[in-house]
Each structure stands twice: as C-alpha cells, then as structure tokens.
Design brief:
Elements (H helix, E strand, L loop, with lengths): L5 H27 L10 E4 L5 E4 L8 E5 L4 E13 L2 E7 L7 E3 L3 E4 L10 H8 L9
Antiparallel strand pairs: 1-4, 1-7, 2-3, 4-5, 5-6
Length: 138
C-alpha cells in the first residue's frame, strides 16, 4: 500500500515535472550559449609606399634583416620605446620569428591593442655582455 495520498502523489509528480522541465530548458540554454572567442592577436599593416625594413634591434642603425612591402600585414608581439623616427618612438616586435625582428611604428597602422614588452631586449643584453653594442655600425 502506498504511503502517499492521491493528492500528495499528484503534487509530487507536478514538482518532479517542473524540475525536469527547468533542467531540460537550462540544459538547452547552457548548450546554446555562445563560445567565448579567443582574443584577437594584434597585427600591423605597413603604410610606407616604399615598404619597410625589418631591423635586428629597434634602431635605424641596426642591421636590416628583412623587408615588408606596402600593405603587408604583420603579427605584432609587443612594443618598446626606442629611437625616434619622424616623431614616433614606438617600435614593434614582429610575432612568430625565432629571432627578434623590429619595425618602426611610424610606418605601421596597428589593429588591436599592443602591450609593452615585459623585458628589455634580451638579445641586446647578451650582445653587450660579449662586448658588442647592438646599435654600433661596422
């Protein structure tokens, strides 16, 4: 024999049905929530009609190690303040290379926020330890 009255059983079924319905709707709402997109990596577009030299260090006295033509899009890692180029002291570190590669921000239109680099040029520091000055000519 049942321990519940007919009225109690009916109420219990309604409650269970409501809970199941809420869980089902919640599950659908949870599953339908849009996925969080990963933040876009900043990049720059070369704006100089003649193109732009890529430098070993953030200075025009540094060695040219590459070149990007006008309109090229380049991934940017971070930025530093260094040599002034036509009123702009910002230089961008190119993303994805095994060695440091720098672009003068004077000729780069960046898209996305580019943060400052956390450490001082590690390559420059090691070059100075070896008695070389990274910006010296010759």
């Amino acid at each position: 024999m049942s321990m519940f009255t007919a009225s109690a059983l009916c109420s219990l079924r309604r409650t269970a049905g409501t809970v199941a319905g809420v869980l089902a709707v919640g599950g659908v709402l949870f599953a339908a929530a849009p996925a969080q997109a990963a933040p876009a990596q900043p990049y720059g577009t070369i704006t100089s009609p003649a193109g732009l030299n890529v430098r070993q260090f953030p200075s025009t006295d540094s060695s040219v190690v590459g070149f990007y033509g006008n309109g090229a899009q380049v991934g940017l890692t971070c930025k530093v303040r260094a040599q002034n180029v036509d009123g702009n002291t910002i230089w961008y570190l190119v993303r994805g290379s095994s060695h440091e590669r720098w672009l003068s921000a004077r000729y780069v239109a960046n898209t996305g926020a580019v943060s400052y680099c956390n450490s001082v040029l590690t390559s420059a520091a090691s070059a100075q330890v070896q008695g070389q000055h990274p910006g010296a000519k010759g």
